[in-house]
Design brief:
Low-confidence stretches: none
Structural class: alpha+beta
Order of helices and strands: HHEHHEE
Strand order of the largest sheet: 1-3-2
Radius of gyration: 20 Å
Mean pLDDT: 86
Distance between the termini: 53 Å
Helix content: 40-55%
CATH architecture of one domain: Orthogonal Bundle
Number of helices: 4
């Protein structure tokens, strides 16, 4: 009997649990700098991202995919532009 009461209490507590909070980027971090760069109309090339953050290119791509895309839900797009190469941007509809 005590076991069923405990199980009921656990179920009730789980049902009352609030939805997980959306992570919010802190100001002044490398991630915040990356988001600022990608939100501009010009976007950012990998060279400018690497220079601004001090990260290696594979780390910057991982941050865009993991931290920005999966954790924060931002859509990062890339396009090849003449004279600049690949340019990354955060879509304006979710910025």
């Amino acid at each position: 009997m005590a076991c069923t009461a405990l199980a009921a209490a656990i179920r009730d507590h789980a049902a009352e649990a609030s939805a997980p909070k959306q992570p919010t980027p802190r100001a002044g971090t490398k991630q915040a700098v990356l988001i600022e760069m990608l939100q501009t109309a010009e976007g950012a090339t990998m060279d400018t991202i690497v220079a601004a953050t001090g990260w290696q290119a594979h780390s910057a791509r991982g941050a865009m995919s993991g931290a920005l895309g999966k954790k924060l839900g931002l859509v990062v797009t890339s396009a090849k532009e003449d004279g600049r190469g690949r340019v990354y941007r955060i879509s304006s509809d979710n910025a």
